[in-house]
Amino acid sequence: MDIIETIAQIKSQLKEIELQEETNQKEQAKINQRIVDLEKELQQQNQQRNQLDREALKLYTRAEELRPKLDKLERIANLSKEFLELHTECQDNQDLLNTLYSSVSNISGENRKPVVTDIYIDKPESPPSDRANSQPKDNSNYADYSISIDDIKKALPNAEKIYQQLVAGYLEEYKTYQNYIIDGLDLVWYAVAFIAFGRSSYRKMSFKYHPDLDGSEMAMQLINTAWSISQNFLGDSDEEDTML
User: Residue 192 contacts by C-beta under 8 Å, 6 or more apart in sequence?
Assistant: First the structure.
């Protein structure tokens, strides 16, 4: 083999090596790019995992907050069901009815369908000036107007007895709103408040809880239902007084 052939072979080998190196570099570049892409994807996956961990923690915390509330609501529902069942079972036994309402409402006295004669015969009459003095303060602003149970009892000494009788007489309405309390008063206490303080208190509460102002549909329904109960009660009272 002469030198010319040797040179040609070496050049051919070098050319082949260059092609292999170029191919190798391309493969390395692909692999390096793939590594970069995988690292970027891994970073994104880690970020997503951290986000999911934060969301999972929030969901867990929220669930832990809701579970006690659910437990209480379930207990309330069960107690409400038992109360209605006991009320039905005790209809023929006045003593048991008295005990039932005394336990639920923490009040004393007889419990029966509203008999207005008994209520108003033993209710001490208050002079108009005393009744005016016992009105809750509203500071000329309906939003600040409020009535407490103490205000009601001050204006109406037998308020608890009226409350008890109204619960018995309007059990379905009481059941509908029994878990809805506004400013510390339930449906029947508002009815007793309107009995004690009259139309002006109803008007102020209607403005305060009107859905177009700062109130809600549910609050307005409760106020209107309480007013209706109070007027039915007072109407029955007038009839009984006439009969007497």
Answer: 152, 156, 159, 162, 163, 166, 230
What gap in Å lies between CA 21 and CA 27, rounded to an integer? 10
d(CA 87, CA 132): 38
Q: What is the mean pLDDT of residues 116-145?
A: 46
CA angle 209, 226, 158 (to 5 degrees): 120
Question: Which one, of 174, 169, 182, lies nearest residue 225 by Cα?
Answer: 174
71-125 per-position pLDDT tens digit: 888 888 887 778 778 777 876 776 676 666 656 544 333 333 333 323 332 333 3
pTM equals 0.45
Distance (Å, whole) CA 86 – CA 208? 37
Closest by CA position to 166, among listed 103, 107, 99? 107
For 28, other C-beta atoms within 10 Å of its C-beta total: 10
CA distance 240 to 73: 41
The answer to whether the beta carbons of residues 149 and 184 sit under 8 Å apart is yes
What pLDDT is attached to residue 97?
Answer: 64
Give the bridge partners for 182, in sequence order. 185
Question: In the predicted model, what is the mean pLDDT of residues 206-230?
Answer: 90
Q: How many CA atoms lie within 13 A of 57 on its CB side?
A: 6
Backbone φ and ψ of 125, nearest 5°: -80, 135
Distance in angstroms between the alpha carbons of the first and the last residue of the chain: 147
* Residue 30 to residues 9, 23, 120, 197, Cα–Cα distance (Å): 32, 11, 97, 87
Residue with tokens 């400013």: 183
- pLDDT of 128 above 70: no
